[in-house]
TrEMBL record:
Annotated site (Transition state stabilizer): N151
Transmembrane segments: none
GO biological process annotation, one example: base-excision repair
Family indicated by similarity: Belongs to the DNA repair enzymes AP/ExoA family.
Pfam assignment, any one: Exo_endo_phos
Site (Important for catalytic activity) location in chain: D221
PROSITE patterns per record: AP_NUCLEASE_F1_2, AP_NUCLEASE_F1_4
Record-linked InterPro entries: AP_endonuc_1 (IPR004808), AP_endonuclease_F1_CS (IPR020848), Endo/exonu/phosph_ase_sf (IPR036691), Endo/exonuclease/phosphatase (IPR005135)
Name of the gene this protein is made from: xth
Binding site for Mg(2+): N9, E37, D149, N151, D246, H247
Protein name: Exodeoxyribonuclease III
Swiss-Prot/TrEMBL cofactor(s): Mn(2+); Mg(2+)
Domain annotation Endonuclease/exonuclease/phosphatase: ranges: 6-247
Originating species: Candidatus Marinarcus aquaticus
Active-site residues from the entry: Y109, D149 (proton donor/acceptor), H247 (proton acceptor)
Amino acid sequence: MDLKLVSWNVNGIRAVDKKEALKWIDEHQIDILALQEIKAEKEQIPKTIFNKEYAHIQVNSSSRKGQSGTALFTDITPTFISETPHVDILNEGRINEFHFENIAFFNVYFPNGQSKEERLVYKLEFYERFLEYINTLRKEGKSIIVCGDVNTAHTEIDLARPKANEETSGFLPIERAWIDKLLEHGYVDTFRHINGNEPNHYSWWSYRANARANNVGWRIDYFFVSDDLKDRIKNAYIMPDIFGSDHCPVALEIAL
């Protein structure tokens, strides 16, 4: 079956609803919609975000009210779901784990390391726990799809001003090295697989200095798949014409 998967850091699902910025969902056939940073409990998600009624909704809210949180919408029936607490050990609502057929799908809002040193350390530890876990699932025979806000730009072509951000969390060598490690372990950056090294493609822009209008951005939102799915990738792209957040959606079309 051909599936269309969309990932978007909405930076507050209630704020996005007030802008009617999720209404475009009704105009697209999206098989899995994965949202990050919803900043809400399940019962706080407005009924008005879009008209489509998905059969399965999986929400993981942070223990800290109004922060983080992930939500997944799909008509696919899961064989297993989890909040993956052994990775998200601080219970910050960062993961929807959703299995169907032989696929382990992850919607992840990876930690941001900019606020203080302890958060950078936690981010790197989270990265390592997550990679260890998905590698374990691969050894059990699962194919892996990971989407979400990784909070790191991988290479210099993944942000507009690499030199100015060499010492900024989100582009530190130690953070970028984890993405190298992820790829070395047999995962594929689907956007680069389809688009090669084309520059100037970003998924996040600061609200300051007209960054989005000037396309001074970062590509920090991804779809990764295990390499056994590489030949099934049909398309992978960014949707910069969708507004409502400081991020824009990213999409993957894949035959499973």
